[in-house]
Design brief:
It is a single chain. It contains eleven helices and three strands, in the order αβββαααααααααα. The relative contact order is 0.06. Among the domains are: about 80-175, Serine Threonine Protein Phosphatase 5, Tetratricopeptide repeat (Alpha Horseshoe); about 180-265, Tetratricopeptide repeat domain (Serine Threonine Protein Phosphatase 5, Tetratricopeptide repeat), CATH 1.25.40.10. Strands 2-1-3 form a three-stranded antiparallel beta sheet, with no helix packed on it. It starts with a helix and ends with a helix. It has helices at about 1-20, 80-95, 100-115, 120-130, 135-150, 155-175, 180-195, 195-210, 215-225, 230-245, 250-265, and strands at about 55, 60-65, 75-80.
């Protein structure tokens, strides 16, 4: 009898212990719920950026987000990827060779998004802009190439291009400084297209007075003089245009003008 009573007591005690251990500590009101473990954040040193996520501006320059002077409105998040830049350069050179200048321009600009200030992309971009008569940006990119790779394989060609474009850049700056010059050129173009050679001559003559070193003004004045049958004078302005390092298109027109005058005059 005593043995049965002792067994009953032991079993009751074990049941009570088991019930006490079976509940979660978070189910008891007097115990605070467990708090999640916080992981320590790793901060990147200020001014240091990952090569995988650099901010590349659409003008071809790279900057980092949050750095002073960064213009986030004109920047696009692109990975620094020299392999993609090389592919863009390869395709751009194909387009340049086949004189598809707009497509080449897009490819070289895109290459500079992936690899800013790449020497080959910068030089090829300058070449393309030169072919498209984009004188000022071509001039600047030839200069950038020499800054990036002064002893590069295209250094001599870039230097020659800068010397060739310099008079046109100077003339363009002088011309743009005077709004009357641009107005006279536009007026003259419209009059020349309407075969009003006398009035076109007046407009272009005024433009040449404002900017004597502008090759286009000299070319158009020569064309107006041809219309007026003043051929000897016209030839002088065509020749002057060629001396002022005009664009390929303007140079071709000036040469055709000289050939036409020589054919008419027989010399």
């Amino acid at each position: 009898m005593k043995l049965a009573f002792r067994l009953f007591v032991i079993v009751s005690a074990l049941i009570a212990v088991a019930q006490a251990q079976g509940g979660s500590p978070d189910d008891r009101a007097h115990i605070e719920p467990r708090k999640p473990v916080k992981t320590k954040e790793q901060h990147q040193p200020q001014g240091e950026s990952s090569s995988r996520d650099s901010l590349i501006s659409k003008s071809g320059g790279a900057s980092n987000a949050g750095l002073p002077g960064a213009n986030n409105d004109t920047q696009e998040l692109l990975p620094y990827d020299p392999h993609k830049a090389a592919k863009d350069i390869e395709v751009g050179e194909y387009y340049l060779k086949h004189k598809n200048y707009r497509a080449a321009l897009e490819r070289f600009n895109h290459a500079l998004l992936y690899k800013p200030r790449d020497a080959d992309a910068t030089y090829r971009l300058a070449q393309t802009q030169d072919k498209m008569d984009l004188t000022d940006p071509a001039y600047r990119n030839y200069q950038i190439y020499l800054e990036v790779f002064p002893g590069g394989p295209f250094a001599k060609d870039a230097q020659e291009a800068i010397r060739r474009l310099a008079p046109r850049v100077i003339a363009s700056n002088q011309s743009n400084a005077d709004p009357d010059f641009r107005q006279k050129i536009e007026e003259g173009e419209a009059l020349l297209a309407a075969n009003d050679f006398q009035e076109a001559h007046s407009s272009f003559a005024r433009a040449v007075e404002i900017a004597p070193s502008d090759p286009l003004a000299n070319l158009r004045l020569g064309q107006a003089l041809v219309g007026l049958q003043r051929l000897d004078e016209a030839r002088i302005y065509f020749q002057k245009c060629l001396e002022l390092h005009p664009s390929e298109r303007d140079a071709a027109e000036a040469k055709r003008g000289i050939a036409k005058v020589n054919d008419i005059l027989g010399k």
